[in-house]
Amino acid sequence: MALITLEDVGVDFVLYHGSARSLKKSVLRNTVGGIIGNRAQDDRSVVRALNHVSLSVKDGDRLALIGENGAGKSTLLRVLAGIYRPTSGKVAVQGRRVPLFDIAIGADEEATGRENIALRGLLMGLTRAEIEQRTEEISEFSGLGDFLDLPTKTYSSGMMLRLLFSIATSLDSEILLMDEWIAAGDEKFLARAHQRLRELVEQSSILVLASHSAPLLRSVCNRAVLLRAGEIVAGGSVDEILDQYRR
To answer: Engineered SS bond to 155: which of 50, 124, 160, 192, CB 3.0-4.6 Å?
Structure first.
């Protein structure tokens, strides 16, 4: 059974010297979320990206993360993926997690498409046997054919995105984590990509999706939380939270 539980989770980013001051000015100027505190004794600033976040997500939940840019949605997703370790509080996750963001991490433009399949697969925790089992399916879905045996530095940006998308969506997931809906490739491939994502959502026990698209969230999710300045300020149905967000 897949399950996510967060208890009073906080995430701090510590910034030093000039970088801290310049970031503070940028944050204040653009009124993005997060809480900034000074530590004048050693010229540090602390950005509290998440603050006292408690959340429970269970089998069958399709959770929408709603909020302005800088509200903490991406940080929360990275905590759920295990990329960020919380500064405070507890995180418990049961089930295989597949994050569909930062899909270019681990890509090597000097390596061939096939070699990149292996590299990305290893980063996602697959064994070499599991990578070999999936390579043919990834090759077929990407539609890249003989290009898979060429260095990816020869690829167009669209070809590279098709390869990375095909790799990232090849895993069976219990917990699917998404930062916006992925758009990949030309019109023909895009239709297949949308269908593939829909199938992944249906097959997953839990979906957590951050997006600004109200129609997408209404069509995919069955509950939502509203984040503001790194805190969850409301939870409920997607329509309820979207209405509150707009107000």
So the answer is: 160
